[in-house]
Amino acid sequence: MATTQTNSDKTQNMQQTVQTFSWPVRVYYEYTDSGGVVYHANYLNFMERARTEWLRALGFEQTDLKAQLHVIFVVHSMALQFKSPARFNDEIIVQSQLIKVGQGSIEFTHTITRAAKVLIVANVKLACVDSETFKPTMIPAMAKKAMQNVSVKNR
Predict the structure, then answer these.
(1) What is the pLDDT of residues 90-123, one digit of tens each?
(2) Would 8 be classed as within a structural domain?
(3) Which of 33, 64, 90, 130 is catalytic?
């Protein structure tokens, strides 16, 4: 008998340490290209989901940050290294490690693996912006404090 896991169940069961957050992803056919490997842009989606779940695990919903504090996080820059492809039906892990917390930005290193083999390494910088004007702003104090507690640089 097949069982399914909801995102809520995944959040409850996720593997994480203080510094590294892991999010499991199953590669579905829709994520692959005609060669049967994950289309390169889908890795960005996987990393975005992992960051969203990381933020949720810290106690912050993006919808609440936008509605109540009027901030959102947007990708400022990224650098990716494609080392090996993921394929249909692979179980991969997206590891998100918060490297730096600035006044108005945060930086991550994401590592995507399959059975401990590194597939992708990405460095991503996110900017905190006002949700209406999209102008840079400071990270809200309560969110920043929570982030600093798990940041590699602040340990």
Answers:
(1) 999 999 999 999 999 999 999 999 999 999 999 9
(2) no
(3) 33
Name 26's bridge partners: 91
* pTM recorded for the entire structure: 0.84
Q: Where are the alpha helices (DSSP H) in the chain?
A: 7-13, 40-57, 62-69, 141-148
Name the phi and psi angles at 62, rounded to 5: -60, -35
Domain harbouring 109, CATH code: 3.10.129.10
d(CA 28, CA 122): 22
In the annotation, is 33 catalytic? yes
Number of domains composing the chain: 1
3 state SS of 29: helix
Q: Which DSSP letter does residue 114 get?
A: E
Q: Which tens digits make up the pLDDT trace of 8-30?
A: 444 443 334 436 899 999 999 99
CA distance 93 to 89: 13
> In terms of residue numbers, what domain contains 25?
20-146
Q: Does the residue 93 lie in any domain?
A: yes
